[in-house]
Amino acid sequence: MTSGAGTAAPGRALAHPDREQLALERVLHALADPVRLSVVGVLAETGEELPCSAFALPVSKSTCTHHFRVLREAGVIRQVYRGTAKLNALRRADLDARFPGLLDVVLTARRRADGT
């Protein structure tokens, strides 16, 4: 596991699996939940780092924290602290390198299911 990069204060860096540690079953588990899949969809569409507050999720704050943690621990997203904000970014390059085409297939299936 690596710690988060960026400008995180000591003790505020979050652990992330290295690319080689990404496991298909953990990534698929993380993507199987509709709330987590919506987070990944937003991050894929924007291509930007977004704070947790940017996501309009239909769950409590503590449940949001759980969903972001599952995504981070599976290696789907990278979270870094910038000031008081925790920013989230999709680890597309790592996912594409480890599991070529997986993310595109999942996101395309999501769009079809949503009718968009």
From TrEMBL:
InterPro entries: ArsR-like_HTH, HTH_ArsR_DNA-bd_dom, WH-like_DNA-bd_sf, WH_DNA-bd_sf. Residues 16-110 form the HTH arsR-type domain. SUPFAM superfamilies: Winged helix' DNA-binding domain. It holds the Pfam family HTH_20. It comes from the Bacteria. GO terms for molecular function: DNA-binding transcription factor activity. This is Transcriptional regulator, ArsR family.
